[in-house]
UniProtKB/TrEMBL annotation:
One of its GO terms (cellular component) is Golgi membrane. This is Immediate early response 3-interacting protein 1. The keyword Chloroplast does not apply. Regulator of endoplasmic reticulum secretion that acts as a key determinant of brain size. Required for secretion of extracellular matrix proteins. Required for correct brain development by depositing sufficient extracellular matrix proteins for tissue integrity and the proliferation of neural progenitors. Acts as a regulator of the unfolded protein response (UPR). Keywords: Membrane, Protein transport, Signal, Transmembrane, Transmembrane helix, Transport. It is found in: Membrane. Its main location: membrane. Residues 1-18 form the signal peptide. One of its GO terms (biological process) is insulin metabolic process. InterPro entries: Yos1. It comes from Dipodomys ordii (Ord's kangaroo rat). The chain crosses the membrane at residues 62-81.
């Protein structure tokens, strides 16, 4: 397999899919990354853990419908062109 733009986009899609399927109650809470941890006070900068949790929540919220569409297009392209 050659390193092409399509393979790079497919790898990025797989990473976004991996972020999207992480569930807080089933997986993230077991490793200590639940929603109740990392809450700072007013004026404090959020730590890396809370920023990553916000990123995971945002990806799950915003990218739900676009991921379904992009995954469907990727599957069709793979079926048509191998």
């Amino acid at each position: 397999m050659a390193f092409t733009l399509y393979s790079l986009l497919q790898a990025a899609l797989l990473c976004v899919n991996a972020i999207a399927v992480l569930h807080e109650e089933r997986f993230l809470k077991n490793i200590g990354w639940g929603t109740d941890q990392g809450i700072g006070g007013f004026g404090e900068e959020p730590g890396i853990k809370s920023q990553l949790m916000n990123l995971i929540r945002s990806v799950r919220t915003v990218m739900r419908v676009p991921l379904i569409i992009v995954n469907s297009v990727t599957i069709v392209l793979l079926l048509l062109f191998g």
